[in-house]
Amino acid sequence: MGQVMTLCASDEADGHGYDKNTVEKYKVTGRSGATVRSGEPLDSPIQCTLTPGTIVEVTEVKGRRCCIVNPVKGWGSIATENGYVIIEPLSARPRYRVVYPEGVIVRSAADIDDSDFVRVISRGEIVEGTGQVQMFDNVERVQVADGWISMRLREDDGALGDVLLEKI
Asked: In angstroms, rounded to a whole number, what is the distance separating the alpha carbons of residues 166 and 168?
């Protein structure tokens, strides 16, 4: 059933037949990679599976399918029927909604013990992340334009506490 590779080679991946001005870069984000088929229908022959992190060039999106022209020419699924994202625009930045009643504190660095207070974001507000995430003391911290925010509280005993942000 096809082979897994970072870049696929195809006789048709020569870049002819499309306007380079309409190409958008996407990234394979699905944990199992992205299956590329020779045609738009889901029963088209499989060409290969692109590994997570592969950057692809897309010329067209039809529903949940996209036409990939580089590194291989074929069609891939952007998401499953259940909404699991497989390939997403490179320009897409993660967004988070503050769900903690008291809001969240933005700090100047991901390490809480070695950072300064920047500001508070109120409950219900939506903030855009940069895509950078770090783990400190078993707590995921996401970078925003002006600093870092914890995804959860950390209790004094080290246990994970309440959720502060939800990814939307």
From this structure: 6
**CB within 8 Å of 75: residues ≥ 6 apart:** 36, 37, 38, 39, 40, 44, 65, 66, 67, 68
Taking the C-alpha atoms of residue 47 and residue 9, their distance in angstroms, rounded to an integer, is 9
- Show the domains of the chain with their CATH numbers: 4-89 (2.30.30.40), 95-167 (2.30.30)
Rounded Cα gap, residues 53 and 27, in angstroms: 6
Angle at 1 between CA 44 and CA 35, to 5 degrees: 60
Q: CB neighbours (10 Å) of residue 43?
A: 6
Tell me which amino acid residue 95 is. Answer: R
pTM strictly above 0.85:
no
pLDDT digits (tens, 9 = 90+) for 30-48: 999 999 999 999 999 999 9
